[in-house]
Specification:
heterodimer; A: mainly beta; 4-stranded antiparallel β-sheet; 11 strands; 13% helix; 37% strand; B: alpha+beta; 8-stranded antiparallel β-sheet; 5-stranded parallel β-sheet; 23 strands; 33% helix
Chain lengths: 156, 458
């Protein structure tokens, strides 16, 4: 048994909403350490052994303040911020393939997410042209106004 | 207590106020903020903040769906709406009722009943509470006939208005038709309800309001009255309790009328019934009821020792009224000044900006409710209230002396403030004597030298 990206996300959410500040979990050769940085900071997570997709989830901030100036080396990578507050969904329906994955090509009008507010579904479009490098928003979690949904390396 | 987490749908000093009581009660707080308020004082005090939209209220603090979605998404048990914003919009209360989130306030039906000013008038009449002579008019002919009976000057008031908004004064009866058309058009645009009604204009009156708490099942108690006559363009600036110089009989009649009015509605939660007192005639008239906690609630808390926000939460939690009327004892006097970021040298125009210096007063009998510290921003998108300074004393003279000293020792730099106006009011012999009417503030300003240099303030 090993932890999936969804498992990590769920554990991070549980810890964040609890009054605990630190969790260390060792499981089948994997070690997960979660530490709360400060009163207003989200829980940060690190996985010692990880796959590429799990790494993406572990880096994701669990839904509070958006990353302001990302520490990425590439200045062509653009944060796509949420134009709305609501619940983020990465696929058009439960069980359907997500709108975009890491590596997907997007155009300005490519739908990248649905943000639901009291059962009203709002589509969010990329607004830029390029390739998705990271998906930070968590499927089914609250997404704040202005929070980074994903990152795109711009082309053209 | 079943309520363990509250989402606060407001900002500024009232958000800090609600958080403070929640912390004292061990209740978790989630604050819904606009982008502009993300690093505000209440945001730093709340257990969690959720950014629900950009600065403009229509896209953040006034978005009912976003507020309720935030409460559901953070698993908050209840929403505290504060004052202003959605606190008296039935839509928020209604959506809470539909979604199983406790609304810390009255029922949607009660908000509607007192929000419609004409309906509120008829509720008052049914409760045998005197109302200002006037009434609804169905046609221009009816209006002209009614106006002749009422005499001039009179007020054309919007049914959907309130809080000083949506009123037009008519000094000559021949101006009435034009005033009514203009008032209706403005009311339609501002409140979504073009209905207007007429009231006699009472030139010299005092604004006296009564704080009530209701259990929602027919039991209502009062916590004394507040005099809020110091107003500039219908905006309250200085409030005090008890109302100076009222006969004991009149005071008790006001309390009883407020309780009667609220009881008839089986009012739930904290509310305030506002009256216009005509002291020369020893008469009073119902103005409106505010179905929420009010800005000036601290003066009532000072003399009663009751935490009104805690009582709001207890009532919302289903505890009913924890206090009986005989539990309410009034000790001494309390006076409050609302400190706004306004420029007295420019017709009190709002003065948004960044507060460089913020030294609020402290000392015996002094309470300050504020969200402003050095470095705080006063944004242009919201009201200009920076903080409230409340002084309590065993008698009015003591409270007044403490408040004058407190105002004099307040240092706020980086934005213009109305501190100098407050100093003028508190120094004024009429105010010191007590019992000023609603025209007093205008008189102070008429005789006021308007300079940008006012002693050591700002």
């Amino acid at each position: 048994m090993s932890l999936t990206a969804a498992d990590v996300a769920e554990i991070m959410q549980l810890v964040e909403q609890s009054s605990f500040d630190e969790l260390t979990l060792e499981l089948d050769g994997m070690k997960l350490t979660l530490r709360r940085g400060g009163a207003a900071e989200p829980v940060s997570g690190t996985l010692v052994e990880q796959t590429a997709s799990v790494a993406a989830a572990a880096v994701a901030a669990p839904g509070s303040t958006p990353v302001a100036a990302p520490s990425r080396a590439d200045p062509n990578v653009q944060d796509i911020a949420s134009p709305l507050f609501g619940t983020f969904y990465r696929a058009p329906r439960p069980g359907a393939p997500p709108f975009v994955e890491i590596g997907s090509t997007v155009e300005e009008d490519t739908v990248v997410a649905i943000i639901e507010v009291m059962k009203l579904m709002n589509t969010v479009r990329a607004g830029v042209r390029g390739t998705v490098t990271e998906i930070l928003a968590r499927d089914g979690a609250l997404l704040e106004y202005g929070e980074t949904i994903l990152r795109v390396r711009m082309t053209g | 207590m079943a309520i363990r987490r509250i989402l606060i749908a407001n900002r500024g000093e009232i958000a800090v106020r609600v958080i403070r009581t929640c912390r004292a009660l061990g209740i978790e707080t989630v604050l819904a903020v606009s982008e502009e308020d993300r690093d505000s004082a209440p945001a730093r005090l709340a257990d969690r903040t959720v950014c629900i939209g950009p600065a403009r209220p229509s896209e953040s603090y006034l978005k009912v769906e976003a507020i309720v979605h935030a409460a559901l998404g953070t698993r908050a048990d209840a929403i505290h709406p504060g004052y202003g914003f959605l606190s008296e919009r039935p839509a928020l209360a209604r959506m809470c009722e539909a979604e199983g989130v406790v609304f810390i306030g009255p029922t949607a039906a009660q908000i509607e009943a007192v929000g419609d000013k004409l309906r509120a008038r008829s509720e008052a009449e049914a409760a045998e509470v005197p109302v200002v002579p006037g009434g609804a008019v169905a046609s221009m002919e009816e209006a002209v006939a009614a106006a002749r009976t009422l005499g001039a000057p009179l007020l054309v008031k919007a049914v959907g208005g309130g809080g000083g908004r949506g009123m037009k004064r008519v000094d000559r009866l021949e101006d009435l038709p034009a005033a009514m058309e203009l008032a209706a058009a403005e009311a339609g645009a501002a409140f979504g309800d073009a209905r207007v009604y007429l009231e006699r204009f009472i030139a010299s009156g005092r604004h006296v309001e009564v704080q009530v708490l209701g259990d929602g099942k027919g039991r209502v108690i009062h916590l004394g009255e507040r005099d809020c006559s110091v107003q500039r363009r219908y905006q309250k600036l200085v409030e005090e309790t008890p109302a100076p110089g009222l006969s004991e009989a009149l005071r008790q009649s006001l309390h009883a009328a407020a309780v009667r009015f609220a009881e008839r509605l089986s009012y739930r939660g904290a509310g305030t019934v506002e009256f216009l007192v005509d002291r020369t005639r020893d008469a009073f008239y119902f103005l409106e009821m505010n179905a929420r906690i009010q800005v000036e609630h601290p003066v009532t808390e000072a003399v009663t020792g009751v935490d009104l926000v805690a009582e709001q939460i207890a009532i919302a939690d289903g505890a009913g009224l924890r206090l009986t009327q005989s539990d309410i004892r009034l000790h001494g006097c309390a006076i409050e000044c609302r400190v706004n970021a306004e420029d007295p040298a420019n017709d009190f125009r709002p003065s948004p900006g960044t507060v460089r210096e913020a030294q609020w007063p402290a000392g015996e009998g002094i309470r300050v409710d504020t969200h402003i510290a050095p470095g705080s921003r006063v944004p242009p998108f919201y009201d200009s209230l920076m903080g409230k300074i409340i002084a309590h004393g065993s008698d009015r003279m003591t409270a007044l002396a403490r408040l004058r000293q407190a105002i004099a020792s307040t240092r706020l730099g980086g934005v213009a403030t109305n501190l100098s106006f407050h100093a003028s009011v508190l120094d004024h012999p009429e105010f010191q004597a007590g019992g000023v009417d609603t025209a007093f503030a205008a008189r102070v300003l008429e005789g006021w030298p308007v300079t940008t240099e006012r002693a050591h303030h700002g």
